[in-house]
Amino acid sequence: MTIFALVGLIFFFTQLANEQFLGAIICLSAAVLFINIYGFVSAALKINVLGYLISVYLGVVSVSVVAIFGFEPTAIGYKTLYSVNLEAIACSIFLLLISTTILVAVQNVKAPNKSSGLDTHRPPLQINFVEKQKPDKPQKTLYDSKKWEEISSQEVESGDYQAV
Question: Which of 102, 106, 126, 129 could form a disulfide with 55 if both were Cys (CB 3.0 to 4.6 A apart)?
């Protein structure tokens, strides 16, 4: 897969150097498409790698849009050699924003654990439609303060009285 990515990038940059934007995009898209097909067939391409691949693809395209269409060489007198196209720069910034958004989203995605099949951090949810009988709470014994007696420490040590 790495060889196809490098070959696609080499063809992309050679087409880009000749200012053939459509040919450059076709070369790069063919390489990315082949990598996706190979990764899907061999199950070697994870969701994170796919996100990185798409993010890098859009980043390279946005830089090439600025390079070809953003600053076009013109011969207007002796003062300027380049014409700045703001629409192309805006499109390039938009592509770069999408590329960065995909990259951030891929960074926050956690791969599922395929070995267990279940999330081991939470117990499985069980729904029980039968109401559980709540155990009766023991009643508190209320002591009447009028029946209290004062006793000495010797009477407490004897064990005949109950301390409350």
Answer: 102
